[in-house]
Write a structure and sequence with these properties.
By secondary structure, this protein is an all-alpha fold. It contains twelve helices and three strands; from the N terminus they run αβαααβαααβααααα. It has a single domain, classed as Rhodopsin 7-helix transmembrane proteins (Rhopdopsin 7-helix transmembrane proteins, Up-down Bundle).
């Protein structure tokens, strides 16, 4: 009987964002607009970085990778969430749920490490400008990207493999809008101490190490900027960092708040609130932040748009 109960769960039922049909329609329209805006904005930046040879620099190489990650990260939970609002089908298979967890952690961790690489790029550009082209060459940038993906792959597998081996028998109702490890652990009918410890160690290590490296990078940057006598040059140097700092703030805020809390009912309720900011709002804001604050990106976008108009004529 015990074995039969442990293998009874074949699919999970995700939490509905609202039970009112009217609000479901509104939420679907809002999510659709945000999702399309995310795709259009990040695809535009990625296209500009690829097509404009003036942007073939380390900073924009990382920005292009960030846009790609925003596209795939938001595409993990949002389409399923919109489908649930439209069709009221909140079911997802066990392996579909595990797959969603795998890709969310893979892309989320990669973006975390990429933001750290971007901070290092700004540190070298401002603190060691004469050696910038040597330190941040093509091979160095490619190595940073490869390392980010490799470490993220290891992190994602270390989370999803132990989770996939858990027996689920208490309930199949996931108390979240999409699949995530913390609400899934509450459904396991076995000791989850190892999973909780592993989850805490991995996520805390990545969050603490990367945030510390970013903080130290900007400490050195600020120290360097204070030594620049010309206020005009100081503002120009710091303007290249403001977009990245804004993205870091919006990304790390909800990320850290989600992972430092224990898996209680109250924390899961807070997780659901911050999940929207982490998985949906942040990828929408990234292209807005870089498009509005970066003059080179705006000039390139205008050039491409004008070129397309001339081509049509």
């Amino acid at each position: 009987m015990e074995q039969r109960n442990q293998t009874s769960v074949k699919e999970f039922i995700l939490l509905a964002m609202t039970s009112a049909p009217y609000y479901k329609t509104i939420l679907f329209i809002v999510f659709l607009i945000l999702y399309l805006f995310t795709l259009i904005g990040n695809v535009s930046i990625l296209t500009v970085v690829i097509m404009d040879r003036r942007l073939h620099t380390p900073m924009y190489f990382f920005l292009g990778n960030l846009s790609f990650l925003d596209i795939v990260l938001v595409s993990c939970p949002v389409p399923k969430m919109m489908a649930g609002l439209l069709t009221q089908d909140l079911k997802i298979s066990v392996w579909g749920c595990i797959t969603q967890i795998y890709f969310i952690h893979l892309f989320g961790c990669t973006e975390t490490l990429l933001l750290t690489s971007m901070a290092y790029d700004r540190y070298v550009a401002i603190c060691n400008p004469l050696r910038y082209n040597i330190v941040m060459g093509k091979s160095s940038c490619s190595l940073l990207i490869f390392t980010s993906w490799f470490l993220s792959l290891f992190h994602s597998l270390s989370q999803t493999i132990p989770t996939s081996r858990l027996p689920f028998c208490y309930s199949n109702h996931v108390s979240h809008f999409f699949c995530d490890i913390k609400p899934l652990l509450q459904l396991a009918c076995t000791d989850i101490s190892f999973n909780e410890i592993l989850f805490t160690i991995m996520t805390a290590s990545i969050s603490v190490i990367t945030s510390t490296l970013i903080f130290l990078s900007y400490c050195f940057i600020c120290t360097r900027l204070l030594k620049i006598r010309s206020s005009k040059e100081r503002r120009k140097a710091f303007s290249t960092c403001t977009s990245h700092l804004t993205v870091v703030f919006f990304f790390y805020g909800p990320l850290i708040s989600r992972f430092i809390r224990p898996a209680t009912n109250d924390s899961l309720e807070q997780d659901r609130q911050t999940a929207v900011l982490y998985a949906i709002i942040t990828p929408v804001l990234n292209p807005v932040i870089y498009a509005l604050r970066n003059q080179e990106v705006k000039r390139s976008l205008k050039s491409i748009v004008l070129g397309l108009r001339i081509f049509k004529k």
